[in-house]
Specification:
With 314 residues, this protein is of the alpha/beta class. The chain has three domains: 13-73, OB fold (Dihydrolipoamide Acetyltransferase, E2P); 80-238, P-loop containing nucleotide triphosphate hydrolases (Rossmann fold, 3-Layer(aba) Sandwich), CATH 3.40.50.300; 252-310, Orthogonal Bundle (Ribonucleotide Reductase Protein R1, domain 1). It has helices at residues 2-7, 110-123, 139-145, 147-151, 167-173, 189-196, 207-211, 284-290, 296-310; strands at residues 17-26, 29-34, 41-44, 58-64, 67-73, 80-83, 88-92, 97-103, 126-132, 155-158, 177-183, 222-226, 234-238. The strands form three sheets. A six-stranded mixed β-sheet has the order 10-9-8-11-13-12, with helices on both faces. Strands 3-2-1-4-5 form a five-stranded antiparallel β-sheet, with no helix packed on it. Strands 6-7 form a two-stranded antiparallel ribbon. Strand 12 (222-226) and strand 13 (234-238) form a beta hairpin. The longest helix has 15 residues, at 296-310. The two termini are 38 Å apart. 35% of the residues are buried. It binds guanosine-5'-diphosphate, magnesium ion and zinc ion.
Amino acid sequence: MTRRRRESKGKGAPRALHQGTVVEIHGVRATVQLHDDAGTRVRCRPPRDRTKTAVGDRVAVLRNKHGDFIEAVEERRRSLWRPKERGRALMATHVDRVIVVGATEPWLKPGFFDRILVATETAEIEALVVVNKADLPGHDVALARLAPMQDLGYRVMSTSAVDGTGVDDLSALLREGISVIVGQSGVGKSTLLNALIPGVELLTGTLSEHSGKGRHTTTVATCHEVGERWPGGGLVIDTPGIRTFGLYDLELEQLAGGFLEMAPLRHACRFRDCLHEPDQPQCAVIDAIETGSIHPRRYHSYLSILNSVRAGEG
Ligand SMILES: Nc1nc2c(ncn2[C@@H]2O[C@H](COP(=O)(O)OP(=O)(O)O)[C@@H](O)[C@H]2O)c(=O)[nH]1
Ligand SMILES: [Mg+2]
Ligand SMILES: [Zn+2]
């Protein structure tokens, strides 16, 4: 195999390289959508050095009579990881925005949003909060729960595939760059994508199926075009079965930087290595909670993430 591939590089033989984006992973192989007018999708062998690729990777594909090969992978930026039983896996890269979806059913947990937002802040990815199922009673209460996030400057949108609320606004946002959609199972992500993207028919489930044990949940990210042909339009990635992003390569001292309201206080504590824990003397974060400029619930999320990062859980 390697011998053949070397031969194909033979002198004088022009090497036709095609630019493309990885849109699906199947074991070691990857489906690459070429940046041509037809949006040709080709299933490729992995790079020679066996680097695992991820959805969003920008690659150069060599196409010859032996098959399609990934020849080069562009340097990654703005990557998202997911926890695996052992270690972690790159879930998507070159991500432009993350859409965090919550709903009234299942009831949204603000702590879940906080963790995702730490991942997006540290990876410098734009984040947008969506409260779905706006047609259901209790929607206003759900929105009110997320007021602290809105106060911080995060965009919070209401959507519903049932009555159409926010569908056009969200679809307009997805028409550029790579968006990753994430949220607890059952909040309506697939239903929403089906409403947003003509021709897409993602599998949706009933709430009981989602919470039920035996249900097969896949962690394969699927990637769909919105608007113009990629890369002129947008790509949206559905992440079934992924509950959260992992926080790896994050020093404990860096965690507060993932909380927009704590980041500016970085140098304001008495001790440079302050982790802003409750018993910490002369801590600017604790002072800010007392004066009301940091929401206690956000601080609670900070402490629980701090403990999980400290325990090496990512
Ligand atoms: N009332 C209401 N139900 C919805 C809405 N969107 C989805 N659902 C229901 O919520 C359940 C889960 O939807 P699904 O799209 O599979 O959720 P996912 O796990 O986040 O992909 C299904 O029973 C849907 O019919 C909505 O906007 N309003
Ligand atoms: Mg789904
Ligand atoms: Zn402090």
